[in-house]
Write a structure and sequence with these properties.
By secondary structure, the protein is mostly helical. The chain has five helices and no strands.
Length: about 140
Amino acid sequence: MITTNSFKILSFAAIACLGSITPGYADDTPLAEEMDSLSSSLKGLRKAETTEEKVKLVRAAQTATMNSLKYLPVIFKEMKNEKEKALATADYKRLIGLTFASLCELEEAYLKEDEEKADEIRSALKALKKESHKKYTD
């Protein structure tokens, strides 16, 4: 049975997948560093002007996303129930995977110079970030 606290823990992990970890829950962990890199890359898209700049930033975000799979959110340490922890870990990986897939779609949109599609994908990434924050932040 997954408790309310479990959902909070799951939410924290999901946040990591979007590169959206902010100082509000980030610390000096390797996962936080990867999420900061992901977030910075996505924020950099606002100022990027050329396709090459955008693609470079998206690829950096992809790398940070994949690197984040090496770690689990700190709050997982608090989980005593192994089944609950396994479920949370699976959900964390699912959200990381969805983020990575969306970033690949974003890369394709930029390479095709389809700004409308890129806008849709960025919106989807924001929604995924929101879901993740809701699940994995206190």
